[in-house]
UniProtKB/TrEMBL annotation:
Transmembrane segments: none annotated. One of its GO terms (biological process) is amino acid metabolic process. It comes from Polaribacter sejongensis. The modification N6-(pyridoxal phosphate)lysine is found at residue 293. It holds the Pfam family Pyridoxal_deC. InterPro entries: Aromatic_deC, PyrdxlP-dep_de-COase, PyrdxlP-dep_Trfase, PyrdxlP-dep_Trfase_major, PyrdxlP-dep_Trfase_small. The keyword Lyase applies. Its cofactor is pyridoxal 5'-phosphate. This is Aspartate aminotransferase family protein. Belongs to the group II decarboxylase family. CDD domains: DOPA_deC_like (cd06450). Keywords: Aminotransferase, Decarboxylase, Lyase, Pyridoxal phosphate, Transferase. GO terms for molecular function: carboxy-lyase activity; pyridoxal phosphate binding; transaminase activity.
Length: 478
């Protein structure tokens, strides 16, 4: 009896070639497409809602349906005018590497199942350890689905190392600009609301050091157990990097775990300017890095690095009977002992193949270009009578608002104006550009980590914003 999923060699090749052609055409034609899609639940239901079919449908018919209905109804995060959240520029080599890993269905949890997958994870993690000046021999890490899982893994480890089994008095400190995934991780770990201390940031959106020191001292006097500080190496809102050296000094003095969430900005260490801004990152106990952001990898690949690999294995290693034959020796790492997942996809392959193919210099060049592009954008905005910088270009993120000098607009009017500008840009589908809130002001946020984004893409979008702004102000007069 043939497998119910049987296809001939010719059928598989024809189908596979068709998909590769679709992906290549997308890479070559994406700039001609619009980066934004807007659709309601009702519209999506009308396209897709159906019962699971009992009988077969021709494979090419299903593929054509997906190409015509699924792909066009997804934002293009790789588009050069996708400026919002954190774009996902990706690269073709990694895309094909993911196809290989999926095609061979490689299990990347234990050494005995795939020694090559485990070895490549060790090798690529060592590359990252060296980049961030972590100890390679003693240090370690694990690839995760993204920054959220990396932060959860780090904080689980910190809790065990610093608190043991009783964390009822444990206190964690983070700034009001820290990524929401950290709060989610803390809550998942069972900490109460009063054990989470959110410290206000200063005028530059960095940890307020005096307020942090006051809070730690107060908690100690009250018999609580401060055990962890979470710093940001590139906040999502502004790209800001906390004073890492100063925070490391506090952690060393008070015996606190120092976790740095560098999911967004840590990759900037490959540029000269970024390396200066990230000074002190090497002093972390644990560091989150997100290769599917500024290392140009397709989703999903996050990463956690630690100074001592035994912290991970001592936290997560379990020895159920069904795994007793595959423990191996200490050098043959089973990555299911380093994190939460037992079943793990082969994430290291795309990182390995892209670095080997393009070389680190290509990544350094791309990141440096992104930072310079944001600086040039800031220069343009500062020379305009219409734009106001709220948070300057930092690690390729800049925040600004339309607030013309010749108009006497109230704060409420400026907020409404910028929100409407963003809404109209997104509705036009020409660019993905949304707002955030800084210092109680609605601002337009631009994230410029796509190496395919040119200064013209930026200026065309700013011109579009100005056109909408003028029309809105005219409408207000009527």
């Amino acid at each position: 009896m043939k497998s119910p999923f049987y296809l001939t060699k010719e059928e598989m090749k024809s189908y596979g070639y068709k998909i590769v052609d679709i992906i290549v055409d997308h890479y070559k034609e994406e700039e001609k497409k619009k980066p934004v899609i807007k659709a309601s639940r009702e519209e999506m239901d009308s396209l897709f809602l159906s019962e699971a079919p009992d009988d077969a449908t021709d494979a090419n018919e299903v593929l054509d349906f997906v190409v015509n209905n699924v792909l066009p109804n997804s934002n293009i995060s790789t588009h050069p005018k996708s400026f919002s959240f954190v774009p996902g520029p990706s690269n073709f080599i990694s895309t094909m590497a993911d196809s290989l890993a999926t095609g061979f269905n490689i299990f990347s949890g234990g050494w005995i199942v795939s020694p090559a997958a485990a070895e490549l994870e060790i090798v690529t993690l060592n590359w990252l350890l060296k980049m961030f000046h972590f100890p390679v021999t003693k240090g370690g890490g694990i690839f995760t689905s993204g920054g959220s899982m990396a932060n959860l893994t780090a904080l689980t480890t910190a809790r065990r190392v610093k608190c043991g089994d009783d964390f009822s008095k444990g206190i964690i400190y983070l700034s009001d600009q820290a990524h929401s995934s950290n709060i989610k991780a803390i809550q998942v770990l069972g900490f109460k609301k009063e054990q989470i201390k959110i410290i206000p940031t200063d005028s530059e959106f960095k940890f307020s050091m005096n307020k942090l020191k006051n809070e730690i001292a107060r908690d100690q006097l009250e018999g609580k157990k401060p055990f962890c500080i979470i710093a940001s190496a590139g906040t999502t809102n502004t790209g800001t990097v906390d004073p890492l050296d100063d925070l490391a000094d506090i952690c060393e003095k008070e015996n606190l775990w120092f976790h740095i969430d560098g999911a967004y900005g840590a990759a900037a260490i490959l540029s000269k300017k970024g390396s200066r801004i990230l000074r002190g990152i090497e002093r972390a106990d644990s560091l989150t890095v997100d290769p599917h952001k500024w290392f140009f990898q397709p989703y999903e690949i996050g990463c956690l690095l630690v100074k001592d690999a035994s912290w991970l294995s001592n936290t997560f290693s379990e020895k159920p009977e069904y795994l007793r034959d595959i423990e191996g020796n200490e050098s043959e790492i089973n990555f299911y002992d380093y994190g939460i997942q037992l079943t793990r996809r082969f994430r290291a392959l795309k990182f390995y193949m892209s670095i080997k193919t393009y070389g680190l210099n290509a990544f350094k060049k791309a990141i440096t270009y992104n930072i310079d592009l944001a600086d040039k954008t800031e220069d343009i905005l500062r020379k305009s009578k219409n734009w106001e910088i709220v948070s300057p270009a930092t690690l390729a993120i800049i925040n600004f608002r339309y607030n013309p000098l010749n108009k006497d607009l109230t704060e409420e009017e400026v907020d409404t104006l910028n929100q409407e500008i963003s809404t109209r840009v997104v509705d036009s589908r020409e660019a993905f550009l949304v707002t955030t809130v800084l210092q109680n002001q609605v601002v337009i946020r631009m994230c410029l980590i796509n190496p395919k984004t040119t200064l013209k893409h930026v200026t065309d979008t700013l011109d579009q914003c100005e056109g909408f702004a003028k029309q809105i102000l005219l409408d207000w007069k009527k």
